[in-house]
Fold this protein.
Amino acid sequence: MKQVTDTGAIEKAVDEIIAANPDQVAQGARQADAGRLVRRTGDEVDRRQGQPAGRPGAGQGQARAAGLMFFVRSASGADLPGVAALLERSWHDTYDSIYGAEKVAEITVAWHSLESLKARLVSPGSEFVVADDGARIGGMAYAAMDKDEPDVVHLHQLYVEPDLVGQGIGRDLFAEVETCFPTARRMRLEVEPKNTRAVRFYSGLGFQEVGWTRNCGGDQSGIPAMIMEKTLAFPG
Ligand SMILES: CC(C)(COP(=O)(O)OP(=O)(O)OC[C@H]1O[C@@H](n2cnc3c(N)ncnc32)[C@H](O)[C@@H]1OP(=O)(O)O)[C@@H](O)C(=O)NCCC(=O)NCCS
């Protein structure tokens, strides 16, 4: 395989590939027109881990709403106010009926402040992605390698705007983060069991219950949660 290292040569090589594969290029354009979620070209250079941007097919789930066109890409500092606002809306929408609005407001201040999001954005061994349609952030996901178990990655956050749930954005955010940790063999998460939509969503993606915690999110939160895991299979 020919290796290219400078930008001009890369562009030339891409042009050659496009010229040699007109059918696939046309098919890709048709899929994008149909409202598929796709990774924005150029995201690869922004990835903090220097990973390839995932296996073919990742980040390409179908958005079902007519005209919906969100791109899954790495988050930047400029996204964080929008992400914080999304988290606040999603948390109230999802958890007010379970924990009460006051407790949710308390958690939002502690966990979703710009400071905590900024710390996550620059944390090594992590991936912070957003779904963006050019006008707003429709969803976010954050995952990070376990500090002690080298084959475990934690899916810490996966949230979609309340008015956009059920349209494929969650699936596509997950497909992206799932491919970002080639050394991980298991993905682990904590979920509120009364959040049945999320439990069904994760079960559908292959997660299984493996245990329980009394302190969801750590820090002696006092919020019990179910722990779920999925085995990650990378092509050999
Ligand atoms: C849970 C969540 C992230 C899922 O994202 P989403 O964009 O709504 O889900 P998608 O549209 O990608 O759905 C993917 C799959 O999940 C399942 N699913 C989604 N919504 C569902 C629902 N209301 N009931 C049952 N299954 C559902 C379906 O099996 C769907 O598979 P399909 O493509 O075969 O239909 C999103 O609903 C959300 O942000 N919820 C509120 C916050 C939250 O609970 N986050 C998780 C915290 S642990």
